[in-house]
Input
Amino acid sequence: MHSHDYFTHKGFEDQVVAVVGIGNSGGDLAVELSRIAKQVYLVTRRGTWICNRLIKGGYPADAALVTRKGNFVRKMLPLDMINDTMEKLLSETLNHEAYGLKPEHRVLR
Output
């Protein structure tokens, strides 16, 4: 079933469910079904960097990071340094390696 066709959790009670795809829809479905299904597997082809929608202080990440100051800093710093910093911060929130989610590509690739 495609996430577009999902309307209710009925029928998934005590089932083993595999959600294919780790985009917003797949993640939302996996969380919702994890409350009523016996087991939920989130399947991804190559892993991904999981980012919170909100940052410290409760601000939306995109609105807080995409600013004139942020753009200026990104232009001044080497891309590897930015990737290292972002990957470190993301790994503090969720251990990507422990869950088999750490991809081979860098976070800004």
Q: What stands out?
A: The chain has two domains: 1-45, 48-109. The first strand starts at residue 16 and ends at 20.
